[in-house]
Design a protein that fits this description.
Order of helices and strands: HHH
Keywords: Cell inner membrane, Cell membrane, Membrane, Protein transport, Translocation, Transmembrane, Transmembrane helix, Transport
Main location: membrane
Distance between the termini: 83 Å
Number of strands: 0
Oligomer: single chain
Radius of gyration: 26 Å
Membrane topology: Single-pass membrane protein
Structural class: mainly alpha
Organism: Tepidimonas thermarum
Largest sheet: none
Subcellular location: Cell membrane
């Protein structure tokens, strides 16, 4: 009644592969990975905010961010 040996785990793995098939197990693994990645991204977006406590604007990955040039000399001349 101790811990399982490597042979016990191999038999369990073989039974799981026979029941579900390798394609379903591969899809299950990729779905699980995508869910974990989505959760991590959501947690990262939920914790980012500006100094006022408002949520940070979300930038789509499909669009490139516009580059803004600030003229420092123009600000000091005013």
């Amino acid at each position: 009644m101790g811990s399982f040996s490597i042979w016990h785990w191999l038999v369990v793995l073989l039974i799981v592969v026979l029941v579900f098939g390798t394609k379903k197990l591969k899809n299950l693994g990729s779905d699980l990975g995508a869910a974990v990645k989505g959760f991590k991204d959501g947690m990262a977006q939920g914790t980012t905010s500006d100094s006022n406590g408002a949520p940070a604007p979300q930038v789509s990955a499909d669009k490139t961010a516009e580059k803004t040039t600030i003229d420092v000399d123009a600000k000091t001349k005013s």
